[in-house]
Amino acid sequence: MPTAKPGEQMQVILDGRKAKVKAASSVGELISVLGLAKEEVLVKVNGKLASDRTPISKKDKVKVMRVIFGG
Q: For position 19, which CATH number holds?
């Protein structure tokens, strides 16, 4: 599994906007870095839906989308 080095950043798409965040080695770690709950988001890595255990690296295209609840 790739390991993020201290101080490294990665670029992600969060709700349609580019954001630089602390580098993470998995989707679950990234969700935590963003301060979100895994039940609130869908994450795509390189165009495919990913679980919180999916490893990621700075080279991956990561898109985080918050799920909207309501009725």
A: 3.10.20.30
Say if 46 falls within a structural domain: yes
Q: Residue 30 has which token pair?
A: 């990234």
User: How many domains does the chain divide into?
Assistant: 1
Q: Is 41 left (phi over 0), alpha (psi -120 to 50) or beta?
A: beta
Q: What is the pLDDT of residues 14-50, one digit of tens each?
A: 999 999 999 999 999 999 999 999 999 999 999 999 9
What are the respective helix, strand and coil percentages of the chain, to the nearest 5?
15, 35, 50
Range of the structural domain that residue 58 is part of = 9-66
This prediction has a pTM of 0.86
